[in-house]
Amino acid sequence: MRHILAVISRVCHCEAKPKQSLFLTSIIIILLFFPSISLAETKEIISEGTYNMGDGETPSVAESRALLQAKRTALEQAGTYVESYTKVENLQLTKDEIQVLASGIMEVEILDKKRTVVGDGILFWVKIKAKVNPDKIEEMAKRVKEKSVIEDYKKIQEAYDKSQKEIEELKKQLAGAKGEKEKKQVEAKITDDERLFEASQWFEKGYKYFINGEYDKTIEAYTSAIALDPNYAYAYGNRGIAYSNKGQYDRAIEDYNKAIA
User: Fold this and answer.
1) Domains in the chain, start-ordered, CATH in brackets?
2) Which pLDDT score is estimated for 26?
3) Three-class SS of residue 128?
4) Quick one: which of 38, 39, 66 has its CA closest to 197?
5) What is the pLDDT of residues 181-237, one digit of tens each?
6) Cα separation of 43 and 38, whole Å?
7) What's the predicted TM-score (pTM) here?
8) pLDDT tens readout for residues 86-100
9) Angstrom distance (rounded) from CA 59 to CA 68
């Protein structure tokens, strides 16, 4: 596509000749009737997510869980779009790399959200608009080839899945708790699960900043993850890599040692 546009540009800037005019007209017709090779536009995806908040949970985390569901739904469509684009451009990415690429360039805007009382709980609903800019795909494709980036993406998804399963089990335990003491013990576990969930969110932000080459923001995000979970080995390790990329090797070594410990 870039080659076609370059040709058009050269033709447009030269003297008008019959053959050149005919050639330019042919190119324009091709672009109009074969959109697959025309300029790719930013993909916009509208998605929704819900989450039922129960006793012991906090509204901010419940809303984040609804937002996560909306993002995951949007990411499926974003992945399909990125896959089609990469095939046309012959970028030769694996399924995992396509998912990482899509998640890295997808920008999310919250369009609407509301809370509704349902039975003994509160239903959180979030509507988002996710944008995928094709201009960033080729540049980002080079970065997602790193093995560590793929592993980080998988760790994030595993952490979210684990948290979702645990919170549903804890809800059942809380509903069946006998006595105030048992109830408080389960509520404490819910609080702990929410803390780790928030740490995973900061880890995800750090990973996205990293593949975009924003190392200062990467460090800030991983620092926030570590503040919530001081034993977050992967966050220490990744923050160490960001420090190393900034040339701050003493801090990098310190983080590597903490990750190992």
Assistant:
1) 2-37 (no CATH), 40-145 (3.30.110), 146-261 (1.25.40.10)
2) 56
3) strand
4) 66
5) 999 999 999 999 999 999 999 999 998 898 888 999 999 999 999 999 999 999 999
6) 14
7) 0.78
8) 887 787 888 888 888
9) 14
Judge contact between 242 and 223, C-beta under 8 A: no
Q: Please give the single-letter amino acid code of residue 190.
A: I
**d(Cα 100, Cα 247) in Å, to the nearest integer?**
26
Nearest of 211, 256, 209 to residue 237 by alpha carbon: 256
Give the pLDDT of residue 35. 45
Q: Give the E-state strand segments of the chain in sequence order.
A: 43-53, 106-118, 121-132
What span, in angstroms and rounded, lies between the C-alpha atoms of 37 and 245? 37
Report the alpha-carbon distance of residue 124 to residue 59 in Å, rounded. Answer: 9
Q: Which amino acid is at 261?
A: A
Could you tell me how many residues make up the chain? 261
* Ramachandran category for residue 126: left, alpha or beta (phi over 0 → left; psi -120 to 50 → alpha): beta
